[in-house]
């Protein structure tokens, strides 16, 4: 039995990195270890997370383990990693390239720039184990200098199985089962998510195929990206599809389930994803995916969706039309997605990959 | 890609097909939204990374022929589209050239151009008007599909219906209108670009030849370009607004259609529900009818039997009367007449019993409670049931293996008993008992009998019982219990052949006074379901006088 600290700058509900942190804690606790989460900022129940300043009193000897989740610039994290005298594991979720935040949020632009340069530092520090959320992330780690023998892919722990079992919000299901074709995008409204391309693809579908259709843009919209939120609404208005797009903001789990249930296809036009948890949710919910295959997206979707190498709204619209008209293709993709989820991205699968990586680096926990 | 056989999907093949279709569609699309977006985002100078594809030309391939001056050819036959593709002045001028085979006169040209520009008349309207003017008819140029609008125009003038048709046509033509608008927008853009290109080409040579002193001219040129650009922007903006209005209208139409669909399906559901309910109601009515007809059958059969009996009695009477008519009635004839008179009420009484006494099984269930008394006295034979009715008690005794016979004055009842294989005979109670020897019967029972007797007859009845019972024999009588006020005040009189209610104390007294001993009153069948809860005086009182036993039994023994 070991003492394990999990450290990351922010822990919040409905956040991919936080869900991975919580999943790791669950697995390690079940194996009898003493696990404690540390952060600078958190919205979970106060007793579950401690301030990072308490980490020194928690860590006692060199057999203890510190797991650091890296997804954004955080000097404190790098300092702690340098100072602790124990075994260290890095989980790399990728860092959004700073250019996306140019003209939208200088603060984030700066944080991401920092996160990128810290990646170099962390990769060269020779930590005991590097875990990457995807092969795409692993290549970045390796390029930054980690060794092959200490770098492994472990998909993030997620809530897709819980979502699958959740009761949907039936009022929403009723409201949107109205004869329209529904398309869905899930993810925080952030400038790397390609909403302009999404709306453009939707407008293309709307005008070329079915003006009795609707696009749900589900995900929180923070004040930090207000300029971006405004821009994508302008784009929708410019293309005259603003009446057919529903911006839901942050939603409850039962509402999210309802949106997955009423939708005909899941659209992913993000320009940068280190993994893409909503894709896994769509697969678990058997919703066919149509995507632009940038970053880790084609790797995550695999054969469970129509993934286009080029960003062409005509292809996107045509794909949606094919799936909507040819129901059997949509169903077959949904089934393939569900199978892919069960084999590769369920928490059980992540757990065995996690434990195997620990085992191979002699960190048997 | 899929191991599931019947849903196998060749992903690569599907994607190849989609790509092919998308390319086809792209080459037919007049306007590329990407280009508009690129323009917007570039002019705003931001988010270059967010744009999906580099700007593509504004559908120039679709409209290579749209030059500033139309390349118009005179022919004898046109497609409507040949003419509609032109715009503004070029359209009006060429419409004249094509249909009237001449250049437009100034006033006509001005009129149509004005109509066209302020939207009062569509291009099709103008073509129709030209084609079917006297001059146009004379030229008789063929323009395919041009007669259809005229037909609609005529229909529009029909009151009410015309308005509806006009609206309908408007809705059907909406997608075409949108396409028209896009084309126009693209046309204008192309025209503007063409102009700009021409100016640029000229610029190059022009400016090279200009000296500093010609700066004034260049300034004017720049200004002209700026004005043109401004104009273009205004036109583009106008068309965007129009397109927006159209899309909004279409959005509303869609919403209406979806709502209508939902309404219709809800109404269909309601109608189906109603049908189901009606079918269920009809079914239950059919079942009721069936039950009713079964009842009617039974009662019809009974009535027939009673009728036969009545006929027999009548014929008996008539026979007697015929034989003895000239002479006065003899006493035994009088007796027959009087006995038969009593029987006239038999069927009425049977009906009464049917109406108020309860089902056969209920009666039997109640009667079974008296069996232990016979067993206690070790009685197995020589049991007589006076007023046996339809023989429920006789049946209970038979099922218990006890030998009994029944006596009833009603022949209908007796016939019923006999049909059930129960030993019963028609007879009058006292006459019957009088015919029995002293100490010859082990038990005499009479359920709901004594309340039919006048006091004197009741006394005689008890006396005969006392005489005919063996020592150790028992008598069991059951009669309505007037201590229950509902029985005493009402239920007792449901049977109009009842004489008086007899309180249990009176009955006990009578039995004892006629020589029977160890008389016990057995209060049975309380209406348990209606008992008031609680133990207070009111509850006790109400329970006793309203919900107490409806009948009581009385048991007497002969020493």
Give an account of the 3D structure.
The complex is a heterodimer of chains A (365) and B (559). Chain A is α/β, with parallel strands linked by helices. Chain A has 15 helices and 15 strands. Chain A folds into 2 domains: 3-157, Glycogen Phosphorylase B (Rossmann fold), CATH 3.40.50; 160-345, Rossmann fold (3-Layer(aba) Sandwich), CATH 3.40.50.2000. Chain A has helices at 16-30, 55-58, 75-83, 106-124, 135-144, 160-165, 170-176, 195-208, 226-238, 253-262, 277-284, 297-301, 313-325, 327-345, 347-360, and strands spanning 3-7, 10-11, 34-39, 41-42, 49-51, 65-70, 87-92, 129-132, 151-153, 181-186, 213-218, 245-249, 265-268, 289-292, 305-308. In chain A, the strands form 3 sheets. Chain A has a 7-stranded parallel sheet with strand order 5-3-1-6-7-8-9, sandwiched between helices. In chain A, strands 12-11-10-13-14-15 form a 6-stranded parallel sheet, sandwiched between helices. A two-stranded parallel ribbon of chain A has the order 2-4. In chain A, helix 12 links the parallel strand 14 and strand 15. Chain A is globular. Chain A starts with a strand and ends in a 5-residue tail after the last helix. In chain A, 53% of the residues are buried. The mean pLDDT of chain A is 93. Among the domains of chain B are: 63-258, no CATH class; 374-557, Rossmann fold (3-Layer(aba) Sandwich). Chain B is 62% helix and 9% strand. In chain B, helix 4 (88-100) crosses helix 5 and helix 14 (360-367) packs across helix 16. The longest helix of chain B has 110 residues, at 215-324. The model of chain B is unreliable at 1-7 and 43-70 (pLDDT under 50). Chains A and B meet through helix 8, helix 9, helix 13 and helix 14 of A and helix 1, helix 2 and helix 11 of B.
Topology record:
The complex is a heterodimer of chains A (365) and B (559).
Chain A: E1 3-7, E2 10-11, H1 16-30, E3 34-39, E4 41-42, E5 49-51, H2 55-58, E6 65-70, H3 75-83, E7 87-92, H4 106-124, E8 129-132, H5 135-144, E9 151-153, H6 160-165, H7 170-176, E10 181-186, H8 195-208, E11 213-218, H9 226-238, E12 245-249, H10 253-262, E13 265-268, H11 277-284, E14 289-292, H12 297-301, E15 305-308, H13 313-325, H14 327-345, H15 347-360
Parallel strand pairs in A: 1-3, 1-6, 2-4, 3-5, 6-7, 7-8, 8-9, 10-11, 10-13, 11-12, 13-14, 14-15
Helix pairs in contact in A: 7-10, 8-9, 8-13, 11-14, 13-14, 14-15
Chain B: H1 11-28, H2 33-44, E1 77-79, H3 80-84, H4 88-100, H5 106-117, H6 123-131, H7 134-139, E2 142-144, H8 147-156, H9 161-172, H10 174-209, H11 215-324, H12 331-343, H13 346-356, H14 360-367, H15 371-376, E3 383-386, H16 392-399, E4 404-408, H17 411-419, E5 424-426, H18 429-434, E6 441-447, H19 455-468, E7 469-480, H20 485-489, H21 504-513, E8 517-524, H22 537-547, E9 551-557
Parallel strand pairs in B: 1-2, 3-4, 3-6, 4-5, 6-7
Antiparallel strand pairs in B: 7-9, 8-9
Helix pairs in contact in B: 4-5, 4-6, 8-9, 10-11, 14-16
């Amino acid at each position: 039995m070991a003492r394990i600290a999990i450290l990351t700058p922010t822990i919040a509900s409905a956040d991919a990195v936080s869900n991975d942190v919580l999943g790791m804690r669950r697995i390690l606790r079940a194996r009898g270890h003493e696990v404690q989460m540390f952060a600078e900022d958190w919205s979970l129940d106060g007793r579950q997370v401690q301030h990072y300043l308490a980490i020194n009193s928690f860590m006692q000897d060199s057999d203890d383990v510190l797991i650091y989740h890296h997804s954004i610039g955080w000097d404190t994290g790098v300092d702690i990693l340098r100072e602790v005298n124990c075994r260290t594991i890095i989980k790399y979720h990728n860092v959004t390239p700073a250019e996306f935040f140019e003209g939208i949020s200088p603060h984030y632009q700066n944080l991401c720039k920092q996160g990128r340069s810290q990646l170099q530092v962390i990769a060269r520090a020779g930590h005991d184990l590097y875990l990457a959320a995807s092969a795409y992330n692993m290549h970045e780690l390796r390029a930054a200098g980690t060794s092959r023998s200490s770098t492994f892919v472990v998909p993030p722990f997620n809530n897709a199985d819980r979502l699958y079992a959740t009761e949907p919000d039936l009022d929403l299901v009723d409201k949107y089962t109205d004869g329209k074709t529904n398309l869905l995008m899930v993810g925080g409204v952030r400038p790397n998510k390609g909403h302009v391309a999404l709306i453009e693809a939707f407008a293309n579908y709307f005008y070329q195929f079915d003006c009795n259709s609707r696009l749900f843009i589900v995900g929180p919209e923070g004040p930090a990206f207000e300029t971006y939120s405004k821009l994508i609404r302008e784009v929708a208005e410019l293309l005259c599809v603003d009446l057919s797009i529903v911006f839901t903001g942050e939603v409850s789990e039962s509402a999210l389930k309802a949106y997955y249930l009423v939708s005909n296809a899941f659209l992913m036009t993000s320009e940068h994803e280190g993994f893409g948890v909503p894709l896994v949710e769509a697969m678990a919910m058997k919703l066919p995916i149509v995507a632009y295959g940038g970053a880790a997206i084609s790797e995550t979707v695999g054969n469970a969706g129509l993934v286009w190498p080029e960003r062409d709204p005509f292809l996107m619209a045509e794909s949606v039309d094919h799936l909507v008209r040819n129901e059997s293709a949509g169903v077959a993709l949904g089934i393939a997605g569900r199978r892919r989820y069960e084999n590769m991205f369920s928490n059980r699968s992540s757990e065995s990959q996690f434990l195997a990586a620990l085992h191979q680096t002699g960190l048997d926990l | 890609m899929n191991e599931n056989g019947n849903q196998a999907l060749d992903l690569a093949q599907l994607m190849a097909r989609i790509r092919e279709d998308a390319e086809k569609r792209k080459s037919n699309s007049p306007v590329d939204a990407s280009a508009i977006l690129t323009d917007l985002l570039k002019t705003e100078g931001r988010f270059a990374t967010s744009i999906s594809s580099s700007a593509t030309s504004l559908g120039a391939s679709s409209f290579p022929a749209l030059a500033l001056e139309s390349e118009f050819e005179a022919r004898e036959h046109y497609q409507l589209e040949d003419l509609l593709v032109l715009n503004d002045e070029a359209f009006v001028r060429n419409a004249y050239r094509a249909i009237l085979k001449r250049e437009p006169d100034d006033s006509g040209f001005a009129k149509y151009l004005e109509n066209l520009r302020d939207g009062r008349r569509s291009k099709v309207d103008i073509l129709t008007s030209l084609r079917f003017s006297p001059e146009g008819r004379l030229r008789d140029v063929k323009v395919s599909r041009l007669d259809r609008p005229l037909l609609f125009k005529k229909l529009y003038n029909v009151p009410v219906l015309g308005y509806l048709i006009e609206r309908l046509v408007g809705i059907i033509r909406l997608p075409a209108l949108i396409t028209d608008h896009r084309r126009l927008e693209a046309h204008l853009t192309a025209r503007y670009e063409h102009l700009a290109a021409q100016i640029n080409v000229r610029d190059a040579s022009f400016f090279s030849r200009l000296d500093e002193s010609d700066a004034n001219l260049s300034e004017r040129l720049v200004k002209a370009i700026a004005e043109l650009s401004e104009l273009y922007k205004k036109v583009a903006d106008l068309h965007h607004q129009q397109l927006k209005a159209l899309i909004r209208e279409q959005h509303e139409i869609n919403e209406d259609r979806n709502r209508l669909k939902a309404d219709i399906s809800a109404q269909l559901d309601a109608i189906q529900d109603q049908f189901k309910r009606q079918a269920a109601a009809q079914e239950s009515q059919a079942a009721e009818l069936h039950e009713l007809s079964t009842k009617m059958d039974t009662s019809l059969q009974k009535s027939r039997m009673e009728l036969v009996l009545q006929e027999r009695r009548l014929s008996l009477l008539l026979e007697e009367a015929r034989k003895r008519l000239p002479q006065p009635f003899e006493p035994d004839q009088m007796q027959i007449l009087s006995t038969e008179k009593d029987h006239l009420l038999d069927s009425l009484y049977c009906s009464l019993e049917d109406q108020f006494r309860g089902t056969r099984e209920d009666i039997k269930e109640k009667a079974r409670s008296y069996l232990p008394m016979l067993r206690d006295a070790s009685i197995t034979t020589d049991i007589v049931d006076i007023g046996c009715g339809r023989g429920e008690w006789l049946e209970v005794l038979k099922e218990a293996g006890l030998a009994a016979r029944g006596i009833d004055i009603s022949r209908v009842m007796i016939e019923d008993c006999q049909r059930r294989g129960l030993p019963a005979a028609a007879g009058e109670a006292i006459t019957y008992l009088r015919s029995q020897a002293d100490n010859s019967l082990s038990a005499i029972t009479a359920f709901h009998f004594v309340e039919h007797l006048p006091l004197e007859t009741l006394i005689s009845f008890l006396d005969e019982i006392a005489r005919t019972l063996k020592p150790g024999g028992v008598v069991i009588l059951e009669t309505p219990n007037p201590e229950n006020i509902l029985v005493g005040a009402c239920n007792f009189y449901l049977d109009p052949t009842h004489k008086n209610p007899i309180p249990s104390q009176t009955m006990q007294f009578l039995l004892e006074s006629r020589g029977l001993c160890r008389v016990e009153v057995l209060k049975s069948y309380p209406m348990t379901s209606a008992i008031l809860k609680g133990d207070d005086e009111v509850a006790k009182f109400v329970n006793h006088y309203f919900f107490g036993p409806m009948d009581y039994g009385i048991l007497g023994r002969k020493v």
